[in-house]
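Box S1 | Example of a co-folding query
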Amino acid sequence: MELAYSKKNGFSELESSEKEKVFEFCEGYRKFITKAKTEREFCEEAYQALERAGFVPLESIGSLKAGDKVYTVNRGKGIFAAVIGKKPLKDGINLVGAHIDSPRLDLKPNPLYEDNGIAFFKTHYYGGIKKFHWLTIPLTIHGVIVKKDGTQIKVNIGEDENDPIFCISDILPHLGQEQAKKPLGEAISGESLNIILGNIEADDAEKDKVKYNILKYLNEKYDITEADLLSSEIEVVPAFEARDLGFDRSMIAGYGQDDRVCAYTALQAVIDMGVPEKTSVCLLVDKEEIGSMGCTGMQSRYFENVLAKLCMLKEKETSDFYLREVLSNSQCLSADVGAAFDPNFPETCEKNNTAYINNGLLITKYTGSRGKSGASDAGAEFVAKIRNIFEENGVNWQIGELGKVDGGGGGTIAQFVANLDMDVIDCGVALLSMHSPYEIAGKADIYMAYKGYKAFFEN
Ligand code: MN
Ligand code: MN
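Box S1 (continued) | Returned holo structure for manganese (II) ion
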């Protein structure tokens, strides 16, 4: 029996055969997140992966039994995937919930304008960003434009090596003396995050000739007019592909790992399930970065509605009472990232209660800020249960807080799951540079997230 508790680097805890699996698994992850940079793209890649694994659309079937694998898509921006268990639903389900939206720049509804011979898109940032990160990096444009008749046009420009990319300019240091005096949070205004689009004038335009030339291009390529942009959802994200980081390739650098690292690992876990005792559900939601609002966010009744449908299809139970019983007996891992200790900025963390990169899957008992304000604080009984599942199944894990007391804070979907009367705890991968355009995750942690979520489903 070890009296003192201590944590080692997760790579040194791995058997050599498992080390290979870590690198192989992370290569799949790296490719996936390079392709899936927005919630809509993640959703599309995810349901294709589910279909390849034998999952069928929930809408296509009339009844459910143990071993059935089903999924349903929420408005193109979220997914509910389930493997039906042997036990009745009222014994509870095992839920792993992650979010697939990430901080980014959205186009404003009326984005296109010209200023002094340069055409721009105006943006409205989404989620918590440090604005200066988004200047002078290559950007790509993703999303949908929906015409009045409902025709949906997909947009994805900048990912192909033959595509152009886009960019936001910054002041040259020679003339940046006033800017340099400002606090970091005030140096760049939200209204200056304008994307450069072009500089060639259209011959046949009377005014705003560069803007008109861009409109001609958009009309030719997408068959749209400027008014069609009013009903679009276009997201601007970094052009970077996810890459191995370090001589030893122990980490992955990439955009949007909050929270696609947990979403991908949760998805793979549900895909690799056998027939579980309790129904396993992987729920991928949108809008976490802006408070889980809206009909695709965790605060929506969507999850309960789909669960009610499972009750009807599996057990012919249609009462609200039955659904409430299912929820009360269910448990959840809120699969979201945490902050890893950064030796460059040690002052932000308390070293005994922080996560370290590649030290294992991170459990965060509570988030919140100041005196745990806004936290869903998991009960000791539930922490013990999860700890036991992980240790019985060879899952390397660690526990940590999000930074020092009074250092700041944050929240996840855990509080909204808890409102449904479910036991829930935050459990995910610890990142460096979270919410930056190029976040860093440890490969041993990514693999342990997969292993941990799978073990949770199976127990
Ligand atoms: Mn997150
Ligand atoms: Mn986040």
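The mean pLDDT is 96. Residues 241 and 390 are 32 Å apart (CA to CA).
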